[in-house]
Write a structure and sequence with these properties.
single chain; flat; 1184 residues; cytoplasm; 24 strands; alpha/beta; nucleotide-binding; 19 helices; six-stranded antiparallel β-sheet; DNA-binding; Alpha-Beta Plaits; DNA binding
Length: 1184
């Protein structure tokens, strides 16, 4: 790894883009004072994150931006880019080159980039930790840094040694961990405060929410009873309202009927009036129509006269057109005859012209052939002479070509051998690259497949999470619904249990007897000792009636004692059933003759203790239960009305024939209460199990949700890491592909060159053979041409005489042809004239015939129109007669309607009187209806005011089995009042605070665990730092002893840790004793001795831990020539592991350098970098 390039733009004295390339080894940067050479080291420090502008010899950020000159404007920003060669991957980034760039603007904005991607200074520092590179490292040493190493400030010295010993990264991690620890402790402190505050809120809220829950429970009971009370009152009022509505509806129907009669009578009156108006209007219209018909008949007469006149005009035009057409046809006939004669003359003339043309053409051909023959011979003679000259020239050229081709052939063979060797080398390298590319592609594909799998798992988890959330929401809703139902069941159960415990539904006397435990022999009320299935409840309740209030006792004495108790306390009357007296009185169904199916005897349909059998068979043993009233009536008739019959709906057919039925309110739920208590208890148990199952499922969903979220986070991290690997692998593949592409291009170039050479070789061989053949051919052609010239000279003399004679005959024939052509042209002109005239005549004839045709059509249409007009006139005359008769009839109808109008008026008055009477009756009924509706509205308002419920919502909790007990209502209201102020919101507040309490408890625990983990991390880091520092410091100290002696040519140097117990914070003492001198305080050393001591420490560090590159800014300036020589020699040795860039003006340093750059100011305040040789660098430094 080494510094490859430094680019400056707008930084200090470098306004234009300056690109400085560095190589491994030692590079010296020289230049006169003030030329800007130290600005290069400042640029490196600045781009690596130097925040102190004073360290860069400025006051504020804009001082590092080019300020402008008289000839060049100031820059708005500056930019420095430092490129490091990372082909050995020493930096933990998979790039061969790493470019760190920093840009700053005059407004104070500053930004960092890593390979042209925006980043933080922190990112750059982390990458460069423990490399020695950075503003706090030892990669940039200027004179100020030398002073820092030797200064009395131990902190500055520690930074250099920490970086050299490789503990900077650990110290940075420790500082970050300590920062996290402080933040975590602060967070824990805040969490503790919140936790205590929430804990203080939780206790009173718990008491409040318990009170609120009790309030809601009682309120719910009260609500159920009171709402049912309102509903029953409303239903009773609505029944009465319905009856009055029916009466109102009857009156309304009668009123509507009267209104209809009234409307019919009024409509009849209005209709008759309208009919009279209509007949008057019709008479008026009929008269107007008769007048209009007379007017139309007059117009028709006028129209017929006009059409007759137009027909006459059209006939005159037709005669003119016929005459004109005849004249045109005669003219065309004459022209056609003239044309025939001219055509005959034309044909004769054409025959004569053709004959002359043939003769002339024949003679032309003959002369042309002779002329061509003579010209051809002359041309051939000239060509043959030229050919002889060309043949001689070509023969000379061919001989030269043969020599050149032979030389080319030798060169082609030599180059072909060289190319074959290069192609073999490239093919070997190409095979290696292809194998590497194949491995990389397989790796790339594998990573992509893995990425796709991870993404699919990620998407699956997202979908599962979404589905799980939906299920969870539905589950929450389900839990809420079930809790509402459970509360409803609990409320109803509580009501029924309390009713059972308080013996609700029983009379006062019965309640008092049952309540008094001192009375002996009391078994309970009849309704309490029996149970019946829901199917028979109505039938049994109906038939038992008041019997359910009867109390069962052991004997008459027990009954007597209870009666005395009631008398003494004035508690009312009760019927008692002594077990010792009452006997069974049950009928046998088998003895009853009936075709009607019976369900059974009522006493057999109950469940009870066997000891109560006589009592129940006495009361219900002669009651038959039948399904419907129709079957009951049938059964009663068949048995002669001897038995009591009860239907499942509670209708009773009494012995003797009387019937009891209709709607009835159940007897205080005495029978159904036990069943309902059992049913609601069972429902509550089922519902609680359902809720428990749902809550368990909810917990399962929560665990799955948490698991899925963790999976998604892990998968997102996997995707990010795989993406990063794919990008790196992709870059690697692209790099190999580019290398393969270059190799293939080189291979193609060589192959193309080889193919070209092969082609040239074949062409050269062919051309060599061709040239040899050409030379032989040229010699043969030269001899043949000489013989041919002699023969052609004789032939041209003979052909010239014949040609002249034929030319005279040709001119005579041309003159005769011209005469015949003139005559032919005249004939053609006349034919064209006649043809044109005929065309014009044809057009004129067509126009005339068209006009004629049009006139004939118009005439036909006019003749048809006159017939239509005459027909319409006849029709109108007929209509006129009909309308006159119709008018007379309408006048007769008008008189009849006047009489009808008087009769209808009398009927309207009679109906109006009836209508008024009905309206008055309806008004009275409506008043009563309004009062009932007002009462219903009062209850409805109470329902809403007390419970914010509509009637529809109230009907949901309606229960006919609930007894409306005013005492119970008052008792519940007293309980609510006794609770005092209730904070309903405390239930929700408690849940929220409890949730926050649980959350912060978890947070508190997490933070405590984090503090413990961070403290362990800091402890581990300190152990590693101590261990690392001890080993490395010892190595640097040994190096210092050696380097000090070598650079000073003797003497003694040592580094000592002052506090061995605290080596990470301890000061480091530097002992320096130059040769021949006593141990001195560092401050007493000369400037040269100080510099050489600091250089010794720097070189000791570089031996122990080489930095990739090191910039030295005139650190050797105080040294004398002898020390400069030793400095240069040592620098040469160290440059094997470290790249050095030395800003210098000392010859010894320049001589040790591998490369030299010069910095000059050819223009004021603008630096320019030049590549120099040693003697040129000396010339520049001579100026200093």
């Amino acid at each position: 790894m080494y510094l490859k390039r430094l680019e400056l733009k707008g930084f200090k004295s470098f306004p234009t883009k300056t690109d400085i390339l560095f190589n491994e080894g030692i590079t010296a940067i020289v230049g006169p004072n003030g030329s800007g050479k130290s600005n290069i080291s400042d640029a490196v420090r600045w781009v690596l994150g130097e925040q102190s502008i004073k360290s860069l010899r400025g006051e504020k950020l804009e001082d590092v931006i080019f300020a402008g000159t008289d000839t060049k404007k100031a820059m708005n920003y500056c930019e420095v880019a430092l490129t490091i060669d990372n082909s050995d991957n020493k930096l933990d980034l998979d790039f061969n080159e790493i470019t760190i760039k920093r840009r700053a603007y005059r407004n104070g904005e500053s930004s960092f980039f890593l390979n042209n991607k925006s980043c933080r200074l922190k990112d750059i520092k982390e990458i460069l930790l423990d490399t020695g590179i950075g503003k706090d490292g030892y990669s940039i040493i200027e004179q100020g840094k030398v002073d820092e190493i030797l200064s009395n400030n131990p902190a500055n010295r520690r930074k250099v040694f920490d970086e050299a010993c490789g503990i900077s990264k650990f110290r940075y991690k420790k500082q970050e961990a300590e920062k996290n620890l402080r933040n975590t402790k602060e967070n824990l402190e805040r969490i503790n405060d919140i936790y205590i505050e929430i804990e203080n809120q939780l206790k009173p809220l718990f008491i409040q929410q318990e009170k609120a829950n009790k309030y809601l429970e009682i309120s719910e009971k009260l609500k159920i009873i009171e709402v049912n009370s309102y509903i029953r009152e409303i239903e009773e009022l609505e029944r009465e309202l319905n009856e009055i509505n029916k009466h109102s509806q009857l009156l309304e129907n009668q009123l509507i009927e009267t209104e209809k009669q009234k409307e019919l009578a009024e409509n009849g009156f209005n209709d008759t009036n309208k009919e009279i108006d209509d007949i008057n209007e019709s008479i008026s219209k009929a008269q107007d129509y008769i007048n209009s018909i007379n007017s139309v008949i007059s117009k028709k007469d006028s129209q017929i006269n006009i059409i007759n006149e137009r027909i006459k005009n059209h006939k005159n035009e037709i005669e003119r057109c016929i005459k004109e057409a005849e004249e045109i046809k005669e003219k065309i006939k004459f022209n056609n005859n003239s044309l025939k004669e001219l055509q005959d003359s034309k044909i004769n003339n054409e025959d004569k012209i053709n004959s002359l043309n043939k003769d002339i053409e024949s003679l032309n051909k003959l002369n042309l052939n002779k002329k061509e023959e003579i010209d051809s011979i002359n041309t051939e003679l000239e060509n043959l002479k030229d050919d002889i000259i060309n043949i001689l020239n070509k023969k000379q050229e061919a001989s030269s070509k043969l020599s050149t081709l032979t030389a080319n052939m030798d060169n082609i063979n030599s180059r072909t051998e060289t190319i074959d060797l290069d192609i073999n080398e490239i093919n070997k390298e190409l095979n290696q690259k292809n194998e590497h590319l194949k491995e990389c592609n397989q790796n790339f594909d594998s990573k992509n497949i893995n990425l796709e799998k991870v993404k699919n798992r990620y998407e699956e988890n997202i979908v599962q999470l979404k589905e799980l959330n939906e299920l969870s929401e539905n589950l929450d809703k389900n839990i809420q619904d079930n809790k509402y139902k459970l509360n409803n069941y609990n409320s109803k159960l509580t009501v029924y249990v309390e009713m059972e415990n308080h013996n609700e539904g029983f009379n006062k006397g019965v309640k008092e007897v049952l309540k008094n435990k001192s009375l002996r022999g009391i078994h309970g009320a009849l309704g309490q000792v029996i149970s019946v299935s829901q199917k028979y409840e109505k039938a049994i309740e109906s038939v038992l009636g008041a019997y359910m209030q009867n109390i069962i006792t052991d004997d008459e004495n027990s009954a007597k004692m209870a009666i005395n108790y009631l008398k003494q306390n004035n508690l009312g009357r009760v019927t008692f059933l002594p077990l010792s007296i009452i006997k069974s009185n049950k009928i046998n169904l088998n003895n009853i003759k009936s075709n009607t199916n019976c369900i059974g005897v009522a006493s057999d349909l109950l469940s009870y203790d066997e000891k109560y059998k006589n009592i129940l068979e006495n009361i219900l043993g002669r009651t038959i239960v039948i399904d419907t009233i129709d079957n009951g009536i049938k059964f009663a008739k068949e048995t002669g009305h001897k038995y009591k019959v009860v239907t499942l709906d509670g209708e009773i057919l009494n012995p003797g024939g009387s019937l009891t039925g209709g709607s009835f309110r159940t007897n205080a739920n005495i029978l159904s209460r036990k069943r309902l208590i059992n049913e609601y208890s069972e429902k509550i148990k089922i519902k609680e199990n359902e809720i428990k199952t749902l809550l368990s499922k909810k917990e399962e969903y929560n665990q799955k949700n948490s698991s899925l979220k963790n999976n998604i986070i892990d998968l997102e991290l996997d995707i990010k890491n795989i993406d990063k690997d794919i990008i790196i692998q992709g870059s690697k593949i692209n790099r190999i592909e580019d290398e393969i592409k270059v190799l293939k291009q080189n291979l193609n170039k060589l192959q193309n060159e080889k193919d070209g050479l092969k082609l040239n070789q074949n062409i050269t061989i062919e051309r060599t053979n061709s040239v040899k053949k050409e030379i032989d051919s040229l010699e043969n052609n030269h001899k043949t041409n000489k013989d041919r010239i002699l023969k052609l000279t004789t032939q041209v003399k003979e052909s010239s005489g014949t040609y002249e004679n034929d030319k005279v005959k040709h001119d005579s024939l041309n003159l005769e042809l011209a005469k015949y052509n003139q005559v032919y042209e005249n004939i053609l002109s006349e034919i064209n004239r006649i043809n044109n005239e005929n065309i014009e005549l044809e057009l004129k004839l067509n126009n005339t015939e068209e006009v004629l045709k049009q006139q004939q059509i118009e005439t036909s249409k006019l003749e048809e129109n006159i017939i239509i007009e005459q027909t319409e006139k006849l029709s109108l005359n007929k209509q006129l007669g009909d309308n006159i008769r119709n008018l007379e009839n309408k006048k007769v109808v008008k008189e009849s309607l006047k009489q009808k109008l008087e009769d209808t008026n009398k009927d309207v008055k009679t109906i109006n009187r009836q209508h008024m009477d009905l309206k008055e009756s309806l008004f009275k009924v409506q008043g009563k209806l309004d009062r009932l509706k007002a009462t219903i509205e009062t209850y409805t308002n109470k329902l809403f005011e007390n419970y914010e419920m509509t009637i529809e919502e109230a009907l949901i909790i309606k229960d006919d089995l609930i007894e409306i007990d005013k005492k119970l209502l008052e008792s519940l209201k007293r309980e609510i009042r006794s609770l005092g102020h209730v904070n309903i919101d405390s239930i929700k507040e408690y849940e929220e605070v409890k949730e926050r309490y649980d959350f912060y408890s978890e947070q508190k625990q997490d933070l405590e665990q984090s503090i413990e983990a961070i403290e362990k991390l800091i402890s581990d880091l300190e152990k590693n730092m101590k261990s690392e520092f001890k080993v490395k410091f010892k190595e640097i100290n040994e190096n210092f002893k050696y380097v000090y002696k070598r650079l000073f040519g003797g003497g003694y140097g040592e580094l000592t840790i002052l506090d061995e117990q605290n080596i990470l914070e301890s000061d480091i003492e530097i002992t320096a004793q130059p040769p021949g001198k006593k141990m001195k305080n560092l401050n007493l050393l000369s400037g040269g001795e100080k510099a050489l001591t600091a250089i010794s420490i720097l070189f000791s560090i570089l031996i122990a831990k080489p930095t990739p590159f090191c910039i030295l800014d005139e650190i050797e300036a105080p040294l004398d020539d002898a020390n400069i020589f030793r400095f240069g020699e040592f620098l040469k040795e160290l440059s094997k592991d470290t790249q050095f860039i030395s800003v210098t003006h000392r010859r010894g340093t320049m001589e040790a350098s591998d490369y030299i750059y010069g910095v000059t100011m050819q223009e004021k305040a603008i630096s320019k970098v030049l590549s120099l040789k040693l003697n040129e660098a000396e010339e520049i430094t001579d100026v200093i």
